[in-house]
Amino acid sequence: SSSSSSSSADQGDDDSNKTSLHQTINVVVAEIQSELIARSDSQKAPAMQKYMKTDMPFYGVQKQQRAVIAKALFDSWEQQIQQSKEYSFIFQTDTEQDEETEHDGAKRTAAANDLYRRMLQTLWNLPHREEKYLAIDFATHYTKLSKRRRRNPNPLTVDGYFFVDDYLEMLRADFMWWDLCDPLATHVLGPILLQHRSRLEPQLRRDWLCHSKCLWIRRTALLAQLNHKQETDEALLWDSCRVSLGSHEFFIQKATGWVLREYSKTSPDRVHGFLKRHGTEMSGLTYREASKHLKKSGYPV
Predict the structure, then answer these.
(1) Which long-range contacts (CB under 8 A, 24 or more apart) does 150-156 make?
(2) Which residue from 69, 119, 175, 219 puts its CA 20 to 30 A from 10's CA?
(3) How far apart are CA 28 and CA 24, in angstroms?
(4) Taking Cα atoms as reference points, which of 5, 178, 155 lies closest to residue 87?
(5) pTM for the whole structure
(6) Which H, E and C letters describe the chain, residue by residue?
(7) Maximum Cα–Cα distance for the chain, whole Å?
């Protein structure tokens, strides 16, 4: 009977934690929504909706104002977790404990991952377009933090690799469009690919690029490489572009040209050589996009 009462207590703790987390998230969401409402513009909202070809409602809050709200989101989130009775232990530093055990570290990591996923999904499931943008800002912020984790540790940072499936699921949303796909690809999945290339490359080649029925995942396979500059994996880039050359999809043709144009700023000779070998296989859109920087730099294209 003692074991059953212990089990009941554990279940009670779990339920209490879930309730507490739900309340914490609700507080942050209420703050963010009040900020969005305060900055909303009923004249701009319909124009933004029309430009994005969507029925999804907008508040009419533009990028510069959203950046202010995003900063408030991060601050509020961390403050709420620090003040939470159930989750403040995540912020305990090693010096505050007599001895950091492997179990303690694993517990903090698991809690931070759970918090991150719940907040990300909550933001993503809110009804307005700007709330989706803030979900991606949230992912971008903590992905950036994880890159500099050793220099600037933040207990709420997560290893983005463990959330790749979450991001792919977001890309499959029926309301997906370039305004959501591109920052998710370049600012979230791009840094994760760079950090975990050996683990992610086979998945990118096999699942994202070749076999995905989702246009936006195929576009992401290209755009995730957009900002890699000197760290670009050329074999992966050339293969990704070759696979995409036969596509009749505007968003694939454009992304193929875009990623080549961006890499031409780092390695113009290499991209020029690729265009000479494969230019006749490209759509006019891909070729024009890929050759823009080379043309400005005086290359014969």
Answers:
(1) 154/78, 155/90, 155/91, 155/108, 155/112, 156/77, 156/78, 156/81, 156/90, 156/112, 156/115, 156/116
(2) 119
(3) 7
(4) 155
(5) 0.90
(6) CHHHHHHHHHHHHHHHHHHHHHHHHHHHHHHHHHHHHHCCCCCHHHHHHHHCCCCCCCCCCCHHHHHHHHHHHHHHHHHHHHHCCCCHHHHCCHHHCCCCCHHHHHHHHHHHHHHHHHHHHHHHCCCCHHHHHHHHHHHHHHHHHHHCCCCCCCCCCCCHHHHHHHHHHHHCCCCCCHHHHHHHHHHHHHHHHHHCHHHHHHHHHHHHHHHCCCHHHHHHHHHCCCCCHHHCCHHHHHHHHHHHCCCCCHHHHHHHHHHHHHHHCCCHHHHHHHHHHHHHHCCHHHHHHHHHHHHHCCCCC
(7) 83
CA distance linking residue 18 with residue 24, whole number of Å: 10
pLDDT per 10-residue tile (average), the chain, 301 residues: 52 62 94 98 97 97 97 96 91 61 83 95 98 98 73 81 97 97 98 95 93 93 98 98 95 98 98 97 97 96 91
Residue in 133, 13, 16, 123 with CA at minimum distance from that of residue 76: 123
CB contact burial 183-221 (16+ within 10 A = b; e otherwise): bbbbbbbbbbbbebeeebeebbbeebbeebeebbbbbbb
Q: Which two tokens stand for residue 179?
A: 């305004």
Q: Which of 257, 295, 263, 294 is nearest to 278 (CA)?
A: 257
Instruction: Sort 55 into a burial class: Cβ within 10 Å, 0-12 / 13-18 / 19+.
Output: exposed
